[in-house]
Amino acid sequence: MTTLPVNAALSSPPAPSPPLPRIIQGGMGVAISGWELAQAVSRQGQLGVVSGTGIDNLIVRRLQDGDPGGHVRRALGYFPDQDWAGQAVTDYYLEGGRAPGQPYKRVPLPTLTTHRVAWRLAILGSFVEVFLAREGHPNPVGLNLLTKLQLHTMPAMYGAMLAGVDTVIMGAGIPREVPGALDAFAQGQPYTFRVDVKGDGPATAPLTLDPADYGFGGVELPRPKFYPIISSHVLAGVLTRKATGSVQGFVIEGPTAGGHNAPPRGQTTYDESGQPIYGERDVADLSEMRKIGLPFWLAGGSGSPEALQRALDEGAAGIQVGTLFAYCAESGLRPETREHTLAAVRAGQASVYTDPLASPTGFPFKVVQLEGTLSEPEVYAARTRVCDIGYLREFYWQSEGKTGLRCAAEPVADYVRKGGKPEDTVGRKCLCNALMADAGQAQIQRGGEVEQPLVTSGDDLVKLAGWKSGYTAGDVISYLLGESTPQG
């Protein structure tokens, strides 16, 4: 194995103790918060964030598309193990990109016991994304992950640490174990997650990542800050007291934010359109947050200079903003999908629906109602169910103490055969394939069926009607800081 000193892989050292950002750019997957967006934000002195969701498939699909600009291969040239990086290029790179109609070569689906190939690609992919976001400037870069993706969290986190990530941000669950993993990986030591397992048997099962298995045993790395995304001050207190390591701050996300939302607290009720109703119990008590003594940022409906000032007045360090950045020129959203969505917004024909069924996780998921996407019942019904990416699968106990994996969006017969309830499959959408399509990397399935997008945005989407065409991340930051208007 050819190994370089890990820190030699970093494009530039981070600035010493930078001030807290007023603006955190939301971590939107898959690849919407890509390295180009994160770099543009970080260069402005705010916290640019890359998404680690789907990072293994992202790197192999970029390579199969011919690695436009050569960015992936350039970053891989700095990975500490060049034999390993070179093998990924050999396995997946296609000069000039795929032939028309050629499907992407898939990443082998990982399991509790068989995950080495997928984890290697996740480590490489996360390294590449953070390296490119950090390239050419000294400012911090963050990584966003989903707690629900328990099988995929540790390798993405470790690859980002190899590239010098400054902050890890996680939502969609209670990431109690993550601080301990960051502590262990910073010392080059293994860490064991307890993953949730459904069915008759123990409620959890162990899953270990040991840096030594990948050639980095004992290698010390900077320990990133950790900001869990929460919706409740109660959860902030729990994580402060009971997490496996230290927490450095919080992102407090309200139910108007895009992507996954926390379920309403208590008994869920629905409005006439079927959306979950949120109440006062779902709003964090900021006076209690101030007592905790850690910095926090407000998210969800925070995309305006007035919202930033209100946050500062409440004692927050600033705001996290997603939707405004999702549609800027540097985002990873497929240009055709971006323009289609913005045209619908300007025509007053786009709305956001908080769908209680769309996500296989069971969490409410914000869906833009948009022609030609899976938000339309006929487009959803026409899709052939398939689970070939598998990020949102859940563990369940099989016979003889073995674990299996299932997803409520997979073929119904498969899900039921694995012990799932057929009613849990109703309305479930394959977010994995849909979000890949959002990023312009739609899989071509058997028979030539092309996966269709499903766009997610916060309720602030309608406010984009007043934004000029082709606006940039710099325009967003300038607007949020009160230095300009949406029209320049």
From TrEMBL:
The lineage of its organism: Bacteria, Thermotogati, Deinococcota, Deinococci, Deinococcales. It comes from the Bacteria. GO terms for molecular function: dioxygenase activity; nitronate monooxygenase activity. Residues 254-276 are annotated as: Disordered. PANTHER family: 2-NITROPROPANE DIOXYGENASE (PTHR32332), NITRONATE MONOOXYGENASE DOMAIN-CONTAINING PROTEIN (PTHR32332:SF33). InterPro entries: Aldolase_TIM, NMO. Keywords: Dioxygenase, Flavoprotein, FMN, Oxidoreductase. This is NAD(P)H-dependent flavin oxidoreductase YrpB (Nitropropane dioxygenase family). CDD domains: NPD_like. SUPFAM superfamilies: Inosine monophosphate dehydrogenase (IMPDH).
